[in-house]
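Researcher: Quick sanity check before group meeting.
Model: Go ahead. Protein one:
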Amino acid sequence: MSDLLIIWLVLGSIFFGFPVIYRIYMGHLSSQPWNLKTDKNYFPTVTILVPTYNEAEIIDFKLENLKKLKYPRELIQILLVDSGSQDSTLEKIEKFLRNNPSVKFKVIKETERKGKSNALNFALKHATGEIISVSDADCFLLDDVLEKSLKYLADPTIGAIVGREVILNPNRTWVTKNEALYRSLMSCIRLGESKFYSTIIFEGGFSAYKRDCLEKFDSETGCDDTGTALNVVQKNARTILIPEATFFTAFPTTWNGKITIKIRRGSQLVQIWTKCLMYLLRKSLVLPKRIAISEIFLHVFNPIIFSLLVLISFFVILQYPLLLFGIIFVLIVPTTRNLLVETVQNNVILLAAFISLILKRRFVIWQKADESRQELTRELLEQHNLI
């Protein structure tokens, strides 16, 4: 056996083996009971922040969804912060409020669009709740999401919670099927991390923060959700995924639409885990090393191993052409093919994001996924009892 083949096998074992081992370990932890002091009678005041920008095609759906929330009206404040929409978003909000006088949503207007983090921080100045929640305009909540999730914030060790994303159109195309499979794997890992200590992978569909743990939403990395969760953890408070606090959204049906989302998210994740690496080297990272080192390796170092593996694979196949048949066999099986496609795609994006970070070039941070919004219909949302 040649040295080149041995190196190829070692790199392949690390690249594919480590994510599998971490997934199995976190899967085990995710099945363990919570060690928390929850309180179903915990009813704090809540402010929900909804950032908007050119949401005319879906804003009526979002407003109807928010109206359905089951929570004492005197304890809830809903702030719609608009960042200079150039379509009929504001007109539709005003019409909805006229037609629903019992709804006490408040509209806050930014004169200039500076990004989602800035919009949330602008709205935060007007928030009065003990709990600050965020929900994006294209994400829809179950009516009992506050009742199911806020009881976890009664525990004094918990600083923030995030919901679990469910794709509304998982069977539309191979793109949505692959994404649904990927999301289920990631949710299991994030739940395992939550039960061990914390997950900092937050999403804008539904999250909630204790006000005394939230100075501002992170704008340094351009990742308002995950960056903010990291800041909460650095204050020695836990941030956890609540699986029953589901929120729903549609996903692009084409590969191009998917890549737009993945590139933005990959850029954010590389920046966050690189920041964690800096904290770790300075011995100031609060997140446990078991989680931090694993995630840093997966998001920063494994993409580099991937690039080496691809390069060496070319020469190994030239020497051992029969290996090509083994690769083809793996690609024939749908499940392994889908996982391999997702793995390769995600690592290419992470590698590109890492290179961009080194070159100090950044992707556009708040760009709407128009294709996924086109999937949102009244019929689909009514089918899931969201409006």
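Researcher: Fine. The other one?
Model: Protein two, sequence then structure:
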Amino acid sequence: MKITAVGWEGTLVLLLVAEILLFGAINPRMLDVTMLLFSTSDFIAIGIVALPLTMVIVSGGIDISFASTVGLCAIALGVLFQSGVPMAAAIPLTLLLGLACGLLNAGLILYTGVNPLVITLGTLYLFGGSALLLSGLAGATGFEGIGGFPSAFSDFANLALGGLPMPLLVFLFMLLGFWLLMHRTRLGRNVFMIGQNARVARYSAVPLGRTLCTVYGLTGLASAVASVLLVSYFGSARSDLGGSLLMPAITAAVLGGANIYGGSGSILGTALATLLVGFLQQGLQMAGVGNQISSALSGALLILVVVGRSASLHWDLIIRFLVRRVRPRDPL
């Protein structure tokens, strides 16, 4: 018996409901729908970068540089504004910078043939160091970063439309776009084929280079979107804004159903896992659990869920192994 993608998504929904009810029993505020919706603004950036990251993982690759890309784009946005560039031009330039970071990753992976983990580990430090250098040159080395943005920009991430906070609406819009892209287009089919067997995909005339450039470029672009939202939300551009996104985003993608070896994954699963991870942190904090204990408990619970899912995917093999162990051997 195996859990299908749809079945695992249903399991994530049940886990999410159970999580909210459990924490609601501890703190009734957790059952307040309005509070739940607006609390997503604290963690929804995880999902924004996890959506394209899912496509990268399904293709058999990995990108760990997005955390530094977020910081680099954030401080670049602040420096552009500080230099007198209007926000109407600074935001598109920031998005182009994020896209360029993603395309650089893809180009290095394709033309060097080096493992994507090694390449993106290098660019993680390259982008992070560039962000720190840019921050130092702009005199924004402190915790405050670069502020003083126009109120129209600073208020954007704190607005609500139809009762939904703006960051959540951006996430839902991106969720729809990436779901269609991955599950309803030729690009998505190519991503799955490359992840299942890159050599066969190449012989089948799948445009491997173009596909990888697209998914890594989208990851960089989404990182830039996340940086713009975070700068608007906090009202400050800092080089460390993406530092806390790395492991939660990878966890959300893998917990949502992306096979770390490539070939399978679900955009909807990643979205549900993002909410599961985010509300887990929120619930533990509202229950009065300290940040250090909260992180440890979150990690332990997520490991249990991932191990349980992995076991369910190989249930047939486990049953056969146990049967062989307990079956009485024939006498000599």
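Researcher: One line on it for the slide.
Model: The chain has one domain: 5-326.
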